[in-house]
Amino acid sequence: QLVESGGGSVQAGGSLRLSCAASGEVASNYATGWFRQAPGREREFVAAIRWRGSPKYHANSVRGRFTISKDSAKNTVYLHMNSLKPEDTAVYYCAADFTGTGSYDSRDYTNWGQGTQVTVSA
Predict the structure, then answer these.
(1) Segment 76-112, tens digit of pLDDT
(2) Over 90: is that where the pLDDT of 29 sits?
(3) Average pLDDT of the chain?
(4) C-alpha to C-alpha distances, 33 to 11, 15, 41, 50, 91, nearest whole angstrom
């Protein structure tokens, strides 16, 4: 089970840090991905990180503004979001990719969290 936290409401240009923590029986050797879904839109890839913390992958739309990282001791993956824009408004989800590759395709992921809302106002 993956649990997201850290969402909230910020103004454009602001920052947030999302957390994705593994709870319960903890598996290993999976990549963790962040996806987001805005109202009326399909779920889209944001970032992914492999089990050992690298390599990392970021969508073009967030590269240079968002950074994915991992604290292996806490088995927690973070999404550091800077220079937020109104178009970043969405529910953000984390999930596990047991292929281990950090896929861009949401169909490769399981153990989805419940999501955390991020709202960016102009």
Answers:
(1) 999 999 999 999 999 999 999 999 999 999 999 999 9
(2) no
(3) 95
(4) 25, 19, 18, 9, 14
CA–CA gap between residue 48 and residue 77 (Å, rounded): 9
- Taking alpha carbons only, the member of 95, 89, 93, 86 closest to residue 118 is 89
Rounded (5°) CA angle 14-19-21: 175
The confidence score (pLDDT) of residue 4 equals 96
In 3D space, the residue among 27, 29, 28, 65 whose CA is nearest the CA of residue 46 turns out to be: 65
Tell me which residue of 114, 94, 99 sits closest to 33, measured CA to CA. Answer: 94
Report the distance separating Cα 67 and Cα 24, nearest Å.
Answer: 26
Q: Give 104-109's long-range contacts (Cβ < 8 A, gap of 24+).
A: 104/45, 104/48, 104/57, 104/59, 105/45, 106/33, 106/35, 106/43, 106/45, 109/33, 109/35
Look at residue 15 in the predicted model and tell me its pLDDT: 98
